[in-house]
Amino acid sequence: MFGLLLALCWCSLVCTSRIYMGMHSILDVIAGFLYSMLILVVFQPALEIIDNFNLTCAYAPLIIISLHLAMGLFSFTLDTWSTSRGDTAEILGTGAGVACASHLNYALGLMPDPPLMLLPFSPPALTAGLVGKSVLRFLLGILILLIIRAVMKALTIPLACKIFCIPCQDVRKARQRMEVELPYRYITYGTVGFSALFLVPCIFSYLHLS
């Protein structure tokens, strides 16, 4: 019940903020909510099948990347630039990166499911050492992801401009072009999502912060 209440509160805050910022109308929010419920009804029974496919199928990463990229191309068919296009590309890229990282973790046996005899987990004693370690993990993880994001941003925007022969003197204007925005957002945040679930935990393990 606590999780459900938290989800409802978060959903309400997001919907309200979109209306307040003028990004969506009330009808947009209602339609989005109903569409989300439809997706939940259709996909919830198949989540276990989809999850097993993502983890075990050898071609899952290729299918995941292709599917997310195709959805990104479909959502980028607007005549004018909109912040929603960038948001959509970030979400799709992050989702693809996380799914590919999950597949790799499973293939390498890095994040196995705990034995049933260990469930449910009991919380450890809250000590100063545990709090310090948690804060260190959080700050280090955020720093790594910010660095990765900055590096990928610096690489992908000029590269996309060069490939599609788009002037990149005005980076902000160049980013509004679909040919630049799609690869920049998708590749950058796909790398961030992959790093958050694979690279950062590996670094934590190497530094004995797991």
TrEMBL record:
Annotated InterPro entries: PAP2/HPO, PAP2/HPO_sf
Record domain Phosphatidic acid phosphatase type 2/haloperoxidase: where: 4-43
Transmembrane residue ranges: 26-47, 59-78, 186-207
Gene3D superfamilies associated with the record: Phosphatidic acid phosphatase type 2/haloperoxidase
Keyword Signal assigned: yes
Segment forming the signal sequence: 1-16
Record keywords, A-Z: Membrane, Signal, Transmembrane, Transmembrane helix
UniProt keyword Transmembrane, yes or no: yes
Short name of any one Pfam family annotated for the protein: PAP2
Protein name: SGPP1 phosphatase
Organism name: Polyodon spathula (North American paddlefish)
Gene name as annotated: Sgpp1_1
